[in-house]
Amino acid sequence: MLAGELDGTLKVLKFSWAPELVWRIELTSMEDARLHLLLFADAPGIRMQVRVAIDSSLDAGTWTLSEGRLDPAIWFARLAPQLSPALVGAVVAGDIELHGDGVIRGGQLEGRVTFDWRRGAVSHPTQGWALEDIALTGDFNFAQNAERWSSVSPLRLTIGSIVTGRFGARNLLVCARIDQGLLPQIEEARVEIAGGEIEAAPFTLPISPLMIQVALQIRRIGLADVVALLPTGLEEAQGRVQGALQLSWSKALGLRIGAGRLELVPNEPMVLRLASAPGFLSASVPERFALLPAWLGPLARWAAPLNPGYADLVAIELGRTALKVESLEVRLTPEGDPQGQSARVMIQARPALDGTSVGPVGFEIGVKGPLAYVLRLGVENGATLSLR
Q1: Which single residue of 51, 193, 259, 311 has CA 20 to 30 Å from 294?
Q2: Are 41 and 48 in contact (CB under 8 A)?
Q3: If we measure between CA atoms, which residue out of 261, 167, 274, 171 comes closest to residue 217?
Q4: Separation of alpha carbons 370 and 92, rounded Å
Q5: What is the DSSP-derived secondary structure letter of residue 376?
Q6: Cα dist from 131 to 93, 157, 288, 294, whole Å
Q7: Model-level pTM greater than 0.70?
Q8: By C-alpha distance, which of 334, 318, 326 is closest to 369?
Q9: Tell me, what's the pLDDT at 160?
Q10: Whole-angstrom Cα distance, residue 20 to residue 17?
Q11: How would you classify the pairing of strands 196-200 and 341-351?
C-alpha cells in the first residue's frame, strides 16, 4: 500500500480576473499497474473533485469529474467590473454543477465537461431590474492542458422573464458555440417583448473586452411600449411595427444605435395621439380666410370666415384628438441625413373621430443630435421629445 499527497496552485484561465486554483492530490492505491488518485481543486466560488487512474509514467490514463460546483454569485462579482460598471452590485442566485470525463494522453488532459446552471436569477435592487428563471447548459471539449476549449453542442441560455422599471420581456433564448479561442459564436438569439419578437442575426461576441455588434429583426412590436420607453413626441400610440436595425455596445462607447427602418405592420390598425405641441400643425394654416384686403380694417376682419379645419388641427396638435394612422415609417441614420437628422418619423394619418373637417394629415418628427444620447435620455430619465 502506497500513500502520499501533493499540493500547489494552478491558473486555469488566462484572464486577470480569474482566480488561481489551490489543488491537492491524494494517492489512494496502486492497481493494474496504475496509480489511482483523487484530485481536489478549490478557489473562491469553485469546488471540484476528480478521480484519476494513470500509469506509472504519468503519461496515459483516465479521469472523471465526480464533483464540480461553481458559486455564480462569486463569479459574477468578478466578471461584472469587466463587463460594465452598471453590473456592479447585482445579486446572483442559482446552482452551477459541472460533470465530465476523459483521458490522459501524452501527459495532457483531454475530454468533455458539462456545465449546468439551474434555478438562476440576477437582480439589481438599486437599479430596479431583474432576470428570473435562468437556465444555462452546455458541453465542452478541451485539450492541451485545458488551454483549448470548444463546444460539443451549442451553449443554451434561457431567461423566463426580464423586468425593468421601463419595460418587460420574456422567453429570451440564446444559443452559442465556443470556439477554441473561447470566443462565443452566437447562432441564435431572440426575445419576446411588447407583444412581438426581436431576433438577432448570427454574430460573434468578443469577451475581452466585451463588444456586441448585431443586426436585429423586429416583428410586431407594440408601439405603445416603444412610446413608453423612448422619446418620440407622442403621448400614446396603439398598433404594431416591424423592421430592422443595427445595434452595438461596448464598455468604452456604451449603447450605439445603427442604421435601421421601422414601418407599420400591414393590416394592423394604429392610432396615436401627439404630445402637446402648440403650433406644430396649425402654424401652417390660417385661422380665418381673408376674402377682403387687409387695408379695409374691421370690414376685412368681419368678412373673414373661420377656417373650419383650424380648430380641429389645434385639437390634434394639443393631443386632444387621436389620429388613425394610414402609414408610418421610421428611418434611423445615426451619422445624420442631409438635413442633419439622426432619426425621422414620417406619418400619414387622419382624425380617428368622424365629423371633423380635417382630412388626411402628413407630418414628420425629426431628431437631431446623437441618437444614442437621445434614446438614453428616454430610457434613463423618461424624457419626451418636443415636436417642431
Answers
A1: 311
A2: yes
A3: 261
A4: 34
A5: H
A6: 10, 12, 58, 67
A7: yes
A8: 334
A9: 96
A10: 10
A11: unpaired
C-alpha to C-alpha distances, 213 to 10, 49, 206, 252, 260, nearest whole angstrom: 34, 39, 10, 14, 14
Cell numbers representing residue 387 in the block: 415636436
For residue 254 the three cell numbers come to 456604451
Residue 121 in contact with residue 94, Cβ under 8 Å? yes
Q: How many CB atoms lie within 10 A of CB 341?
A: 18
Structure-model confidence comparison of residues 272 and 300, the more confident one: 272
Task: Give start and end residues of each alpha helix (H) in 134-256.
Answer: 223-229
Average pLDDT of span 157-166? 91
CA distance linking residue 140 with residue 358, whole number of Å: 65
How far is CA 307 from each of CA 227, 245, 313, 367, 386, rounded to the nearest angstrom? 32, 42, 10, 31, 26
Dihedral Cα 148, 154, 155, 156, nearest 10 deg:
180
Q: Report how far residue 132's alpha carbon sits from residue 116's, in angstroms, rounded to the nearest whole number.
A: 16
- CA 376/CA 334 separation, integer angstroms: 14
| Three-state secondary-structure class, residue 176 | strand
Q: Is the peptide bond prior to 209 cis by the omega test (within 30 degrees of 0)?
A: yes
Query: From the CB of residue 266, how many other CB atoms can be counted at a distance below 10 Å?
Result: 6
Which phi and psi angles does 63 have, rounded to 5°?
-145, 155
